[in-house]
Specification:
single chain; three-stranded mixed β-sheet; Ankyrin_rpt-contain_sf; Ankyrin repeat domain-containing protein; signal; 3 domains; about 400 residues; alpha+beta; Serine Threonine Protein Phosphatase 5, Tetratricopeptide repeat
Length: about 400
């Protein structure tokens, strides 16, 4: 009864392995490596491979019989696997169709959920109501278990907005906040990441004395310091930094990675925390945090159409010009608005250059530049163009 959903999920996983996920250039490639090498560090060596084998067994069970979701959930937790069942869409992984919502910037990564269904979009109806019933009970069982370590990150979801969802005011619009910091804290955090999220310095000190790696990533690729920063636990973050925690986060992360403590602080515009971490990194590394304006894909598509139209209008002039590389430089303000434009070098046809710049100002949309502290600043955005129709000799 689950055959169609499982087969398509398997196919999508194969496609994902070949092509990767696309969030930002280079980011998911690093996250993919971290998924295999680092994200299982909170458990035992080889946990990622054990996950894959267990997921294969579950998919086979869903294809050949009607497995008990409660028994399957308990079996997974007994081996230390607390991932929730999810569905894969072209937009990423979601657990909301199965009664759970996880709050992580950028959403869930493939290795952080047990993907059992593939659909074309998040709103599409599931392929099987029985599959939804299985996954919903599975997730409810996991989240209700006293051993579940992520109850402040993933929680039951009925499809209706919840009050805690508004806690994302700590982050700029368009980003998902991390977790639900306002939920009741456990009396005794069970691991170093939970202790960091709850700001329990006494527990952090005890776990570090017991030999826990201060930069070890959890299932989500987050180091203890990354969680302390994401939850705005200044005393815990300060303690971890004093103990040698890295502003770059886990060993497979770089300073510019999305889940590094420094990047999280920048996203939150937490200037005091950035200043606290700055002495721990080199000036060159700090400079790499600066971001230039970035043109949106839809605007580039519209501009390319305009460029094609203008080439037709000015064909008689362009046919006399050898093909050459030009840079269209647009001044972008802190709100992402285009203010001015120039073409370097110019084509020699002033009307064409002016018309091209005007279209660029009208149709291009930009993500503004940000300084190393994450503050939007004015800067020049650039597009490289190839212009001229005359063949080279």
């Amino acid at each position: 009864m689950f055959r169609k959903a499982i087969v398509t999920a398997a196919l999508s996983a194969a496609t994902l392995a070949l092509g990767g996920c696309g969030n930002s250039p280079g980011d998911d490639a690093r996250r993919g490596a971290r998924g295999q090498e680092c994200s299982d560090g909170s458990y035992v060596p080889g946990f990622y491979q054990k996950q894959a084998r267990a997921d294969g067994t579950l998919r086979h069970a869903l294809l050949t019989r009607d497995p008990d979701p409660v028994a399957e959930a308990r079996k997974a937790m007994d081996r230390g696997d607390f991932r929730l069942a999810g569905r894969m869409t072209v937009d990423g992984i979601t657990t909301e169709a199965y009664g759970a919502r996880c709050r992580l910037m950028g959403g869930l990564s493939p290795w952080t959920a047990r993907v059992i269904e593939f659909t074309q979009n998040e709103g599409q109806k599931p392929a099987s109501s029985d599959l939804v019933a299985f996954a919903s009970v599975y997730n409810a069982t996991v989240m209700a278990d006293r051993r579940y370590p992520f109850d402040d990150i993933c929680r039951a979801y009925s499809g209706k907005p919840q009050a805690e969802d508004n806690a994302s005011h700590l982050f700029e619009p368009g980003y998902r906040a991390y977790g639900y910091p306002g939920l009741r804290a456990p009396a005794k955090p069970s691991d170093i990441w939970q202790a960091a999220r709850r700001g329990s310095i006494a527990r952090l000190r005890l776990l570090l004395r017991a030999g826990r790696d201060i930069n070890q990533p959890d299932l989500f690729g987050m180091s203890p310091l990354a969680w302390a920063v994401a939850y705005r636990r200044w005393p815990a973050a300060d303690f971890l930094l004093n103990q040698g925690a890295s502003p770059a986060g886990a060993k497979c992360q770089g300073l510019v990675d999305r889940d590094s403590p420094m990047q999280i602080a920048r996203t939150m515009r937490w200037g005091a925390m950035i200043w606290r971490m700055r002495p721990l990194i080199t000036e060159d590394d700090f400079a790499t945090l600066r971001q230039l304006p970035r043109a949106h894909d839809l605007g580039i598509d519209a501009f390319n159409k305009s460029l094609t139209d203008l080439r037709g209008v000015y064909k008689a002039q362009l046919v006399t010009k050898p093909f050459a590389r030009h840079e269209m430089i647009i001044a972008v303000d802190p709100e992402g608005k285009s203010l001015d434009c120039r073409l370097e070098p110019g084509t020699g046809f002033d009307k064409f250059d002016a018309a091209l710049c005007q279209r660029g100002i009208e149709v291009l949309r930009w993500t503004p530049a940000r300084d190393a502290f994450g503050i939007a600043v004015p800067a020049d955005g650039k597009l490289v163009l190839g212009l001229g129709d005359k063949p080279r000799p």
